Structure prediction request, 120 residues.
Amino acid sequence: MNGRNASEVNIQDMQNEYANVLAENEQVEKAYKLIRDIFIFTSKRLILVDKQGMTGKKIEYHSIPYRSITHFSIETAGNFDLDAELKIWISGTQAPIQKQFNKNLNIYELQSVLASYILK
Prediction:
């Protein structure tokens, strides 16, 4: 992912840093950092790491098994919009998980990675 606010991060670093939230034999396969949030694609699920508050010490880990994702959409940034948006719908919930990204992010790459895991 190119852009000022998103970058692919080292898989081994993520494996070590988030070992406490990974299941036995679960491997980090791809990860992207967006300012303070992180998308972690593992061998079993998508983990959204949402750092909150001024210091970022409060962290929410949103675990989504790939089989639970019913569909997702992207909305690209327009000429006057500053943000692109990703929406992920989870079975059993009506409202999607929404994440906004700076228009410098290659949202197509992120959706391609997400599609490859969901369509396995």
